[in-house]
């Protein structure tokens, strides 16, 4: 009941209570940098997309009895999220800047202004923009290749730690079950 109330409160603030709710939550502001879920929450909270990176920030739940292994897992997830956030914020900013410069230079070469007579921004056709996209991807190929390599490394580490945590929890549960049956 309390979890449902907390989920509704976060969705009203523009975020969601967990990964299951993130796809249906609002993408308008709310869960900004100062936002914190209520102390009784036992789930990760997912906020609205960041305006620079377009990634949804996660506020990770920290259990009171978090083990050293669980802390390593959470910290690896937080580190991966921060790294991913930085990369995409920088990449998207570079993309927008270069796109604007490309459009400006093509319009200038055609003898056109950036805005038409009605004040609307002048645009290029799909074929002209395809040239930009192809060039941008070619120019950033190595950067994306390194990003993918690092992303896989980080995710392998996270998956490995998740497996360890699951194994420790399963063994703990089996010991508890054995103790319960023995009494």
Based on Cα principal axes, name the global outline.
elongated
Ends apart, CA distance between termini: 33 Å
How many separate domains make up the residues?
1
Tally of helical runs? 4
Radius of gyration: 23 Å
Structural class: mainly alpha
**Helix and strand succession?**
HEEHHH
Mean pLDDT: 83
Q: Could you describe the largest sheet, including whether it forms a barrel?
A: 2 strands, antiparallel
Number of β-strand runs: 2
Helical content stands at 55-70%
Strand content: under 5%
Q: Which residues form runs of ≥5 with pLDDT under 50?
A: 1-31
Strand order of the largest sheet: 1-2
Organism: Aythya fuligula (Tufted duck)
Subcellular location: Mitochondrion inner membrane
Region (Disordered): 15-48
Protein name: Cytochrome c oxidase assembly factor 8
What does this structure look like?
The chain has 183 residues and is an all-alpha fold. The protein has one domain (45-182). The chain is 60% helix and 2% strand. It has helices at 2-12, 68-109, 126-139, 141-182; strands at 45-46, 58-59. Residues 1-31 have low confidence and may be disordered.
